[in-house]
Design brief:
There is one protein chain. By secondary structure, the protein is mainly α. It has a domain of 39 residues. Helix content is 67%, strand content 0%. The longest helix is centred in the middle third of the chain and has 20 residues.
């Protein structure tokens, strides 16, 4: 039997933010700006019917994996 864990959008964004902020030269203002764009994109994608997980990964990919 397969053990699947439920996707947690809040945790995924937090992990993404931490990874982004840890990059050399990444200013806190830039991190906040990129997070805002990610959240906006996720919101639009969810309104179009995507799940939290699908919306996160599509938005992430559209940002170039930043």
């Amino acid at each position: 039997m397969e053990n699947q864990t439920r996707f947690n959008l809040t945790n995924a964004i937090a992990t993404w933010r931490q990874d982004l902020a840890a990059r050399p030269g990444m200013a806190p203002e830039r991190t906040r700006e990129l997070e805002s764009h990610l959240n906006e994109s996720i919101g639009v994608l969810k309104q179009r019917g995507l799940s939290d997980e699908e919306a996160f990964w599509v938005a992430y990919g559209r940002m170039g994996g930043e």
